[in-house]
C-alpha cells in the first residue's frame, strides 16, 4: 500500500496542508526557480484571449489544405470536431493539476518534475521548447508568406523571393519582442490581435464564399497514391492536434489570478466554444470553395479587390507578430529569470539584454524559417514530436499518477488507453512528417521560394 506524507504550502494567500504520495515527495529535490515575470495578475478573460489568439492565428489560413485536403469532407469535419473535444479534455487535466501538492506549478516542466523527478523535468523542458521553437518558425514563415502575398498583388517581377520577406518578418518580430517584456504586458495587444484575426478571417471567408458560389464544381477527391495517402492522413492528424493546443498551458495559467483552476477552466471554455468558431468557419469554407486545389495559404486562392486582400494580408502579418510573442514567452521567461532581468523594462541593462538575447533567438528562428519554408510539414512535425507527447501522452499519465488513489479502475484504464493510443499516433505522425520534409527538401533547394 502506498505511503503518504504531508506538504504545507501557500496557495492563493492561504496555507494548505496537502496529502501527497511518498513516491512523489521523493522527487521534491528538483530545484524550481522563482520567475522574473509577472504572475497571478490577469483575469480569466485575458487568459481566454491569449488561448484564442493562439488558435486563431494566421495558421488558420492553412488548415483547409493541411487538414481538409488529405482527409476529405467526412474525415476533415469529424477529425476537427474530435480534435477539439480531446484537446479540451487533455488541457482540462493539465489545468486541474496546476495546484497539485499544494504548490502552483507555473511551468510545464515544474509540474512534470514535481510528479516524476529530474529526468522528466529535463525531458519535458526539451519537448516543450522544441514545440515552441517549431511553432515560432512557422509563424515567421507565415508572416513572410503574407509579406510576399502583398508584394505579388502590386508587382509581378518576382525580384523579391520568399526568404527575403521571411527576413523582414523576423526583424519585425524581433522589434516586438524587445518592446513587450512579458506575457501579461500584452493586454491591449490582445485586443489588436483579435481585431487582426477577424479581419483576415472575415475577408478570407467572404471572398472564398464568393468564389465558391461563382466557381464550377470542385474536385474533392483526396490526391495521391494509396501509400502517399496513408502518410498524408497521419500528417493531417498531427495538424489537427496542433490546431487546438498551445503546449504552454501552465505558463498561461501562471498569469491568472485566483481561484486559478476555476478561472483557467473558464478560459478553456471560452477557447473551445466562441474561440473555435472562426477556425471552423474559415477551414470549411476554404475547402468548399477550392476543393483539392486549396492553397497552403488561403489568401493566395481568393480573388477580389486588391485593397481588400492587401488589408487581410497586413492583418495576418501583424497578428502573427503578436502570436509569435505568446509562444516565445516561456523562452523569454527562462532567460530573464536565469539572468535576473527584473525591474523596469526600460532600464538600460534590461533593454540591452532583450535586444541581444531575444534578438538572437528571433535571428535563429528566422534563419531556420528561411532555409526550410515548408509550413504544412512543420505543422505536422511539431504536432508529432511535441504536441502529442505534451498535451495528450504526458497530460493523461500525469493525471493518472497524481490522482491514482482517487480514480476508479475504469478511469485508470481510460487514461492508459489514451497514453498508448497517442504514443502510437505520435510515432506514426513523426515518421510521416519527416518523410514529407525529406521529399520537399529534395524537390526544393535550401532558401526555396515556395
From TrEMBL:
Keywords: Amino-acid transport, Membrane, Transmembrane, Transmembrane helix, Transport. GO terms for molecular function: amino acid transmembrane transporter activity. It is found in: Membrane. GO terms for cellular component: membrane. One of its GO terms (biological process) is amino acid transmembrane transport. It comes from the Eukaryota. Coiled coil: none annotated. Pfam families: Aa_trans. Its main location: membrane. Residues 42-434 form the Amino acid transporter transmembrane domain. The chain crosses the membrane at residues 44-64, 71-90, 129-150, 162-183, 189-209, 230-248, 268-290, 355-375, 381-402, 414-438. This is Amino acid transporter transmembrane domain-containing protein. It comes from Erythranthe guttata.
Amino acid at each position: 500500500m502506498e505511503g503518504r506524507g504531508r506538504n504545507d504550502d501557500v496557495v492563493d494567500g492561504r496555507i494548505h496542508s496537502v496529502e501527497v504520495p511518498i513516491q512523489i515527495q521523493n522527487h521534491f529535490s528538483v530545484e524550481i526557480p522563482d520567475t522574473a515575470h509577472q504572475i497571478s495578475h490577469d483575469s480569466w478573460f485575458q487568459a481566454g484571449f491569449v488561448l484564442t489568439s493562439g488558435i486563431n492565428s494566421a495558421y488558420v489560413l492553412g488548415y483547409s489544405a493541411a487538414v481538409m485536403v488529405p482527409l476529405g469532407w467526412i474525415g476533415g469535419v469529424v477529425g476537427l470536431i474530435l480534435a477539439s473535444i480531446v484537446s479540451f479534455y487533455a488541457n482540462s487535466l493539465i489545468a486541474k493539476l496546476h495546484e497539485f501538492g499544494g504548490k502552483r506549478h507555473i511551468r510545464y516542466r515544474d509540474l512534470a518534475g514535481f510528479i516524476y523527478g529530474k529526468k522528466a523535468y529535463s525531458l519535458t523542458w526539451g519537448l516543450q521548447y522544441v514545440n515552441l521553437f517549431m511553432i515560432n518558425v512557422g509563424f515567421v514563415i507565415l508572416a513572410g508568406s503574407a509579406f510576399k502575398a502583398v508584394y505579388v498583388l502590386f508587382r509581378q517581377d518576382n525580384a523579391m523571393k520568399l526568404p527575403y520577406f521571411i527576413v523582414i518578418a523576423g526583424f519585425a518580430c524581433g522589434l516586438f519582442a524587445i518592446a513587450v517584456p512579458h506575457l501579461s504586458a500584452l493586454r491591449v495587444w490582445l485586443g489588436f490581435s483579435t481585431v487582426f484575426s477577424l479581419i483576415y478571417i472575415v475577408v478570407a471567408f467572404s471572398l472564398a464564399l464568393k468564389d465558391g458560389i461563382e466557381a464550377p464544381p470542385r474536385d474533392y477527391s483526396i490526391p495521391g497514391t494509396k501509400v502517399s495517402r496513408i502518410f498524408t492522413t497521419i500528417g493531417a492528424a498531427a495538424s489537427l492536434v496542433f490546431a487546438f493546443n498551445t503546449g504552454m498551458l501552465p505558463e498561461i495559467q501562471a498569469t491568472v489570478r485566483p481561484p486559478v483552476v476555476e478561472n483557467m477552466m473558464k478560459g478553456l471554455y471560452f477557447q473551445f466554444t466562441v474561440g473555435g468558431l472562426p477556425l471552423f468557419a474559415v477551414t470549411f469554407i476554404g475547402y468548399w470553395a477550392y476543393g483539392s486545389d486549396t492553397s497552403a495559404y488561403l489568401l493566395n486562392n481568393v480573388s477580389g479587390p486588391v485593397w481588400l486582400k492587401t488589408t487581410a494580408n497586413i492583418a495576418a502579418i501583424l497578428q502573427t507578430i503578436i502570436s509569435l510573442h505568446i509562444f516565445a514567452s516561456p523562452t523569454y521567461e527562462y532567460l530573464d529569470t536565469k539572468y535576473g532581468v527584473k525591474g523596469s523594462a526600460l532600464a538600460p541593462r534590461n533593454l540591452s539584454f532583450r535586444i541581444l538575447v531575444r534578438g538572437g533567438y528571433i535571428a535563429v528562428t528566422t534563419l531556420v524559417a528561411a532555409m526550410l519554408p515548408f509550413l504544412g510539414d512543420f505543422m505536422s512535425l511539431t504536432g508529432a514530436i511535441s504536441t502529442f507527447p505534451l498535451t495528450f501522452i504526458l497530460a493523461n499519465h500525469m493525471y493518472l499518477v497524481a490522482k491514482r488513489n482517487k480514480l476508479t479502475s475504469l478511469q485508470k484504464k481510460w487514461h492508459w488507453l489514451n497514453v498508448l493510443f497517442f504514443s502510437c499516433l505520435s510515432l506514426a505522425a513523426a515518421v510521416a512528417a519527416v518523410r514529407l520534409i525529406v521529399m520537399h527538401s529534395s524537390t526544393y533547394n535550401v532558401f526555396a521560394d515556395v
